[in-house]
Amino acid sequence: MTWFFLSLAAAFLMATNAAYMKRFFSDVSSWDMCVIPFLYSMPLCGLALLAIDIPKLGDGFLPALFWVTPVTMVAVILHFRAIHVSPLSLTLPFLSFTPVFVLFTGDLILNEQLSTMGIMGMLLVVIGGYVINLDSVRLGLFGPIKAIFREPGSALMLIVAALYALASVGGKLMIINSSPMFTGMFLFWLLGILIPLTLIGSGKASIKVVLRKPLLGLGAGFIVFTEIVCHNFAMSMVAAAYMITIKRMTGIFSVIYGWFLFNERGIRYRFFGTAIMTIGAALIAFFG
Predict the structure, then answer these.
(1) Is 179 helix (H, G, I), strand (E, B) or coil?
(2) Which of 29, 89, 173, 222 is most buried, with most CB under 10 Å away?
(3) CB of 132 within 8 A of CB of 270?
(4) Which residues contact 104 (CB under 8 A, 6 or more apart)?
């Protein structure tokens, strides 16, 4: 059960990071918002790399790193664009679709075999994602699905879900060929360099804006750093699809944050949907 609580902690921290950035950095562009947590978490990841044992790298580590890095970069940029332009409770819950993609990518890349109860749990999580938008059912059975494309952040997050599914499976391949801590710290140390270089170098983000609130930036970096630790340890303990399914309970925490911090509306169906997602997660945790 350790993997379950680590995955749940990663979910909470991902939602907390989104709420934190929206609360304290909503006045900056989505490009600047994307740079801040990765730039400030980079020194922490670098210090961790100096403190941990460097494992012997397997043959599959570098090939996986070469494609996981750009996929993750694109996913992260779209992720922050989504939470910048739309309510938290209509963006992060759509990450619940990630397990559907992991179901296929995990089998294809890692040859992971999933139990019947595990698959049922994942399906319930996805159904919960549908119910979250159930107030749109007045427009027809496919109203909640159409609502995804009416809300730009929701549509973007669905793309992000697919990219995260691919990156997560590749990340586990890196863990298999090294260690959980090394994989997490090295990958995010690298992202902490590449994302700022790419966005600031292209003129999308401003170094002046990024460094304007250093203490708040350090807070964002610490949240990301802690999420990395929880994510990678959990990923090393269980099938990628199961871990990512639990982490996609991020949606539950995002609805709560959206309600309490940002007074977002339409919360009733979103809470009902998160209850279904919780049941699915419990199936995975106890029977998957």
Answers:
(1) coil
(2) 89
(3) yes
(4) none
The span from the CA of 112 to the CA of 239, in Å, is 7
**What phi-psi label fits residue 239: left (phi over 0), alpha (psi between -120 and 50 degrees) or beta?**
beta
- Domain boundaries, given as residue ranges, for the chain: 2-287
H or E segment and range at residue 168: helix 152-176
What is the SS3 assignment for 112? coil
Euclidean distance between CA atoms 252 and 247, whole angstroms? 10
- How do the pLDDT tens digits run along the chain, 288 residues long? 788 899 999 999 999 999 999 999 989 999 999 999 999 999 999 999 998 888 999 999 999 999 999 999 999 999 999 999 888 887 887 777 776 676 665 555 555 566 777 778 778 877 877 777 676 655 555 556 666 677 788 889 889 988 988 887 788 889 889 988 899 899 999 999 999 999 999 999 999 999 999 999 999 999 999 999 998 888 878 776 677 778 877 888 888 898 888 888 777 777 787 778 778 777 766 665
Is residue 167 within 8 A of residue 75, CB to CB? The reply is yes
Tell me the C-alpha distance between 284 and 115, whole Å: 9
* C-alpha to C-alpha distance for 70 and 257, rounded to whole angstroms: 30
Q: Which residue has the tokens 């710290």?
A: 185
Where does the chain show beta strands of DSSP type E? none
Which SS3 state, helix, strand or coil, does residue 103 take? helix
